[in-house]
Amino acid sequence: MLELRLVQGSLLKKVMESLKDLVNDANFDCSATGFSLQAMDSSHVALVALLLRSEGFEHYRCDRNISMGMKLENLTKILKCAGNDDIITIKGDDGGDTVTFMFESPSQDKIADFEMKLMDIDSEHLGIPDAEYQAIVRMPSAEFARICKDLSTIGDTVVISVTKEGVKFSTKGDIGTANIVCRQNTTVDKPEEATVIEMQEPVSLTFALRYMNSFTKATPLSSTVTISLSSELPVVVEYKIAEMGYIRFYLAPKIEEDEEDTKPQV
User: Fold this and answer.
1) pLDDT tens digits, residue range 158-188?
2) Is 70 exceeded by the pLDDT of residue 264?
3) Within 10 A of 36 (CB to CB), how many other CB atoms are there?
4) SS3 (DSSP) at 138
5) How far is CA 82 from the centre of its chain?
6) Which residues have C-beta within 8 Å of that of residue 86, sequence separation ≥ 6?
């Protein structure tokens, strides 16, 4: 038996809005400790990991580990029927082939329930090793979203370079080049407006802007974003979800081709 009751139902709506363009269908895994998802995007380039810890729910009952395969597009359609202030309850039976969503208005004068068919989805659970990162940047999430959006008007890729001076986002395209530098500033009045850089050594990596822009759909979940970079590892773009968990996006860097390789073969 599974029963999860989330008072801040809008959190779940925001989570799904941030995932639906990246992932088509995925297994939601429920255990005694929390509600999680791990999935590759449809082109197998990016990985997303979501965790909502059990203590963040008002009521959380999960008698045994259960995996529910859902089409994210369908789930988003159902969640759109919930008001932003609604309390969301998710119910499922062990071994059942449906999941029920119940939306209650705060005044409890309206209750809606939707039953959704589950899918069988083969998905391998990838072990994501804990790693030491050469550079970790924490910055306002809206700022990061704006930078990715602005740079994508110029080019297709972004070079993220971290030095003691700050973090630089650069791109180049047919119409020219663009560089945006964010310097470390920890003296701002509000901590969520600070840009904080922890750097073991300078790092510079290239990523596809299409994916970065997709990740920034999670901006409404958190006022800050943490970007962890290491030369041999995928970047981790992490948004905290209230006090109850996180959504992390992983993207492998693009390998810049050597100039010799780009010459036409004679």
Assistant:
1) 999 999 889 999 999 999 999 999 999 887 7
2) no
3) 17
4) strand
5) 22
6) 9, 10, 103, 104, 105, 106
Indicate the length of the chain as a whole number: 266
Per the structure block, which two tokens stand in for 53? 């810890």
Orientation angle between helical segments 72-79 and 9-19, nearest 10 degrees: 140
Residue 217, CA distances (Å) to 35, 42, 256 in order: 20, 17, 27
DSSP state of 218: G
CA 17 – CA 218 distance, rounded (Å): 8
Give the bridge partners for 2, in sequence order: 62, 92
Round to whole Å and give the CA distance between 8 and 210: 30
Q: Which two tokens stand for residue 168?
A: 């630089």
Is residue 234 classed exposed, middle or buried when 0-12, 13-18 and 19+ CB atoms within 10 A define those classes?
buried
Question: What integer pLDDT is reported at residue 121 of this predicted model?
Answer: 84
Question: Does residue 71 carry a pLDDT above 60?
Answer: yes
Encoded tokens for 258: 């050597």
Strand partners, 239: 247
Output the six-digit token pair for 149: 């959006």
Can you give the pLDDT at residue 206? 97
The answer to whether the CB of 203 falls within 8 A of the CB of 174 is no
Residue matched to tokens 């062990």: 94
68 close to 28: Cβ distance less than 8 angstroms: yes
Does residue 114 or residue 186 have the better pLDDT? 114
